[in-house]
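In the previous lecture we treated proteins in isolation. Real proteins rarely work alone, and many bind small molecules. This record shows how such a complex is specified: first the sequence, then the SMILES for 5,10-Methenyltetrahydrofolate.
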Amino acid sequence: MTARVLDGKQLAQTMRVEIAAAVAARTAAGKRPPGLAVVLIGDNKASAAYVRNKQKGCAEVGMGSWLHHLPVHTSESHLLALLDTLNTDPAVHGILVQLPLPPQIREDAVIHAVGPRKDVDAFHPENVGLLAAGFPRFVPCTPHGVVHLLRRNDVPLAGREVVVVGRSNIVGKPLALLMMQKATTANPAGCDATVTVAHTRTPDLAAVCRRADVLVAAVGRAGLITPDMVKSGAAVVDVGTNPGAAGKLVGDVDPAVAGVAGALSPVPGGVGPMTITMLLANTLRAAELLDG
Ligand SMILES: Nc1nc(=O)c2c([nH]1)NC[C@@H]1CN(c3ccc(C(=O)N[C@@H](CCC(=O)O)C(=O)O)cc3)C=[N+]21
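The predicted 3D structure, ligand included, written as tokens:
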């Protein structure tokens, strides 16, 4: 068997066309174009590349975007002052502070300082709480991208065994919530799946993974998921973004898994482009919530 490719690049493009149409309709009605402010601190090469992709995405769908690129030694108070300004700027609907941050800046302080109505990452505790309770204001970008990628490729989720490997606040934990939640009008990203969350302290990870109809790897360890860990015909979603040889991006899934899986979302070209499209969707939603 060789797995069907879950093509995130193509689906991201299709969904950007839908978002662009909604943006155009707003502008035609005399509303402000949705605008995203991105804050990047320091010169991490991977971060700079992701930020460029985000700005390119905004331009593609007719949204405004501003990049605030601050030096690596920026103080926490300086960053918090900038966030205050962005929180009150009516042209800015979404704010994203690119992670990771340099050591003199506390991640927690920054997450609390982004106004929850402009928090398009959905990292603020108010938005985390709304998601956990089943009525999200913003659905976090990467988990939402995974759900759309599976849904729009007709991978069944309701009642199925989903194993999420990884328990981060950015991917594993919110994805497990969406997967276990009931699909409702307030929460259309709910999947009604049967969910197991595995992590570094899970004994016999391979045995847990082999139960999965849908296996999601979000750990950050290149090649962690090998063919022996995958049930024949399962759908496998690779969320890993590890630095590979020659500046190439590599996932958490060994490419040989394609010989066992029924469907596989690759790195690059899978979840990454979907993440950015969901960020654009959240920026549009922020504009709708703030401006009507
Ligand atoms: N506040 C914040 N929000 C984030 O959403 C956030 C963050 N910080 N810090 C870093 C991670 C990582 N992340 C990616 C987004 C897009 C791709 C992406 O577009 N990848 C492409 C190509 C990348 C390439 O080849 O260089 C792909 O997989 O095909 C990857 C990774 C967002 N993150």
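Summary for your notes: Residues 49-50, 53, 96-99, 121, 141, 241, 249, 267-269, 272-273, 275-276 surround 5,10-Methenyltetrahydrofolate (CB under 6 Å). Residues 8-28 form the longest helix (21 residues).
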